[in-house]
Design brief:
- Two copies of one chain form a homodimer.
- Chain A is mostly helical and about 220 residues long.
- The first copy, chain A, folds into two domains: about 70 residues, no CATH class; about 140 residues, Tetracycline Repressor, domain 2 (Orthogonal Bundle), CATH 1.10.357.10.
- The radius of gyration of chain A is 22 Å and the shape is elongated.
- Chain B binds a DNA duplex (30 and 30 nucleotides) through helix 3.
DNA sequence: GGACTGACAGATATTGAAATCTGTCAGTCC
DNA sequence: GGACTGACAGATTTCAATATCTGTCAGTCC
């Protein structure tokens, strides 16, 4: 039943400090392992049914042990949300920090974000729905994530302004305006629309409008 | 208890056809009167509790009589939604059909839409929440409403292109792009953000970006 | 005869008792 | 002595019985 449970007759590890950077044996309870198992439980049971007791059971420990690492169920779910959002950052920062002209970089960043979100939503709709719930529960984490995304945008805009490719705008508020204007193509609440015919044309149209507003004539 | 109920000893009207365009006496059951009462019941009990029986009770008739005019509860709610959305059209079409340069008209149309929505949300949050639920139930009605709004936008854009004020764009898809880009400022799902500090600056920034993308350099 | 009623079947919502879960902590076990 | 357990109180969820609602229609009443 459990993917990690019943570590049955195995002896508990005695000295873990011999090789400080070696991977922890699966018998050691760490935040990372709890997080992984929580994702697993969430995936299986869904956000409504997944309980701390389920996570503990899957790990083969008592739920009291889980509370030793995460102060509350909310904190545990928040950490899972954080983890998931962090993945999104990394992939896109490549575009933000690349060399070359700003316009295609901005286009690719926006298209990359849209494509990534759409894949997440399409490849495993159930898991996506689960994360939609978590995201709804953790607006503070999400707000921070959004700020990071807008900072990436601002870096691209700043580059474009510096190179004279874009008109002289204030990068930070402009980045926010770009984020807001493309809202429909990254807010998961609109995921259902991302699979309608004509969505790519609509995305292109908004991108064109935004980029025309930025380009030095 | 009921605002309309107990029309007690009054005799039923005998001949209604004498003056065809006279206002119906309140004792006559008409779709319009049912709609009004339904709005009232919705306002009082909220979308979850308001029932067809409640509406009938408020009208002082049996619920069977309500079903004579509206085939189902869903149809009744849909009609209420339609009615509400129709009000939004009318106010803004003034901007869409006005004379003068397109840029300020477009700006005022967008600002007018945002202001109207924000007032609806702020003046009576409970009623707004009620209509949010109705709107969620009636996506077909909402989709039609959105098409009408985009048509109004397209008329402004077309005027701007004709007068050489805007660059030569295809009005219909451009209007849709403008609608999409300003999404955050008209989709009621974001109502909570409309009262955060800085929202007006964010709105202006998106408007500026969009209008710069339209203006002939 | 056409507007309206009210009883009805099936669907949906409410309720309260029982089960489960969250979060704590004194105590156990290396 | 620090990681872990398991019993516990209070909060939350589940489940099944009960009540209410939706939609229909034969029948009533001007």
């Amino acid at each position: 039943m459990s993917r990690y449970g019943h570590y049955g007759g195995l002896p508990a590890p005695s000295s873990l400090m011999e090789r400080p950077y070696a991977p922890m044996p699966p018998e050691t309870l760490t935040p990372a392992r709890i997080l992984e198992t929580t994702e697993d439980v969430l995936r299986r049971y869904g956000p409504a049914k997944a309980t701390v007791v389920d996570v503990a059971r899957a790990l083969g420990v008592s739920h009291g042990s889980v509370y030793r690492h995460f102060g509350s169920k909310a904190a545990l779910r928040e950490a899972v949300t954080q983890r998931w959002l962090d993945q999104s950052h990394t992939a896109l920062s490549a575009f933000a920090d690349a060399e070359g002209p700003a316009e295609p970089r901005l286009r690719e960043w926006l298209a990359g974000l849209f494509a990534a979100k759409r894949h997440k939503a399409g490849d495993d709709p159930e898991l996506f729905a689960t994360y939609m719930v978590l995201v709804g529960e953790n607006s503070a984490v999400v707000d921070r994530h959004i700020e990071t995304m807008i900072e990436q945008l601002a870096r691209i805009v700043e580059g474009g302004v510096r190179d004279g490719e874009f008109i002289a705008v204030d990068p930070a508020p402009t980045a926010r305006a770009i984020w807001d204007a493309t809202n429909r193509f990254h807010d998961p609440a609109y995921a259902a629309e991302w699979f309608r015919p004509g969505i790519d044309a609509a995305f292109e149209a908004v991108c064109d409008l935004v980029l025309r507003g930025l380009r030095r004539a």
